[in-house]
Every structure is written in C-alpha cells, then in structure tokens.
Amino acid sequence: MNDQHNPATPTADWITVSTAEGPMRVYTARPAQPADRAVVVLQEAFGVNDHIQDIARRYAARGFLALAPDLFHRNGVGTLAYEQHAEAMPLIGAIGPDAIVTDVESVVAHLTEQEGVPASRTAINGFCFGGRAAFTAATGIGGLGAIVVFYGPGIAAGPHAVVDRAKDIDAPVLLHVGSEDPTIPAEQVTAIDEALRSAGVQFESHVYDGAGHAFACDARPHMYVEDRASTAWQRTHAFLDKHLPAAA
Fold it and tell me: From CA 110, how far away is CA 45, in angstroms rounded?
C-alpha cells in the first residue's frame, strides 16, 4: 500500500533551529493530528541516520511530535555508517555536557515557542551516545516531562560523566541496559541507580538478561535482541503515557 496520500500517515521533514552555537538541523516527524506532547529523540554515535529518523516517525504514529536534532552540527559530519565506529568515537567525545544542554534546550524552547508544547509535555529519549545526552540534558533543563535512556555509556564514568549531577534532575527517568553491555558494566548501572535514589529522583532501571549494547536497534541485526527490545519499548510507551498522557 502506498501511504503517500494517506491523511492519517505522519509526515516528516528537516527544519532548522537556532542555538547559541549556530543553526542546527532537526528531523521533525509530525503526527496526522496536531500534537500536544513531544519527544526529542537523541541520536546514537552515528548521527540522525535512517534508524533515528524511523524512531521519530514511530513516535509520530503514536501521536507525538518527534524532533531529532543533529548533535553533529558543529562539525558538519552529518551521519556515519555503523561500521565507522572508530570515526564516531572522537566526534561524540568532543560533545560535552554544556554543548548537549545548549542543543536540547534550543529544541525544547522551539517546541514551547513555535509548537505550543511546553517542557512539561516534552520527553527526551536517547540511544547510545544519545542516552548519555538525554541524562545530561535532564541535569541542565528543568521541568521536562520524562527522560528515557536506552543503553547510554559514559553517564557514570568517562570524561563527560554527569552522575554527580543527578541531584539536578526533576523529571522521572527510565533506563534500559543490557546485562552483557561492555560499555555500561554492572558497577556503573549501580552507581547511576544509587545516585538517582539518593537524589530523590523518580526512576525505573531495567537490566535485560542476555542483551548487549544497542539491543533495541533493529537496524543492526547482529546486536538486535527482539524480545528484549519489545519489552523495553512496551515499558517506554507505558512510561510516557503515564507521565505525558494523551489529551482526552
């Protein structure tokens, strides 16, 4: 079936959002009906690629306005192939907490000012590097509706660790990690959970047995674990519907 002319099909395009450090392209997926809730989808280490765009469209199909900012806008790289892991590492290593907050804050402001969706009706959902970015954004932007972290390395250890800033988070947080993920060992999962608990943050943390890094990325078949991914997405949708319920 060709959905090109189906009025119920979400539409998607690129827009440009101004930031304090220059213009930033943002992939925007719109639901068929006007949305009063939004999700900011934060990229893996490979840019706003087909997989991240697909996630944005999936959110739009569920009634969310979904925006995926190009966090590589400072260097103009765009996207990398999944086999370009070595090239991706220095790129994400160069994006520290302040840059992440600047970028996500600009998207949240755009949603409030141009789309009429306040921060309290906006969730941040990040994957891999974007998982760290989602947690980081939550430490620097108040009043967000929800935070969802899929396998975000570098939160509890590394040059841009922000676990010590957990006390600044005022949004509910949902975290997913695979038990076999070498980038987020068990002691780091424990450190994140303890920091959130000590800070009084409302959170859920789920470890998926038999799953490694990027276990929910169906664009990488050798890493994808379908049943674990399905459970993680079910929990994510329930979490967002709880904290950002659809309008009656």
Answer: 24
- For helices 129-140 and 97-114, angle between their N-to-C axes, nearest 10 degrees: 70
In a domain, 2, yes or no: no
69 touches 17 (CB < 8 A): yes
Please say if the pLDDT value at position 171 is more than 90: yes
Question: Which residues are the active-site residues?
Answer: 128, 181, 213
End-to-end Cα, the chain, rounded Å: 31
**What pLDDT was estimated at residue 7?**
47
14-51 pLDDT tens trace = 999 999 999 999 999 999 999 999 999 999 999 999 99
Number of domains in the chain: 1
Which residues in 235-247 are b (16+ Cβ under 10 Å) and which e?
ebeebbeebbeee
- Using an 8 Å Cβ cutoff, are 45 and 89 in contact? yes
How many degrees, rounded to 5, is the angle at CA 219 between CA 91 and CA 137?
Answer: 45
Could you report the per-residue pLDDT of 145-159, keeping only the tens digit for each? 999 999 999 999 999
Residue 8 to residues 65, 105, 136, 138, Cα–Cα distance (Å): 14, 30, 35, 33
Q: What is the CATH number of the domain that holds 148?
A: 3.40.50.1820
pTM as predicted? 0.96
Q: Which of 154, 126, 123, 127 is nearest to 141 (CA)?
A: 123
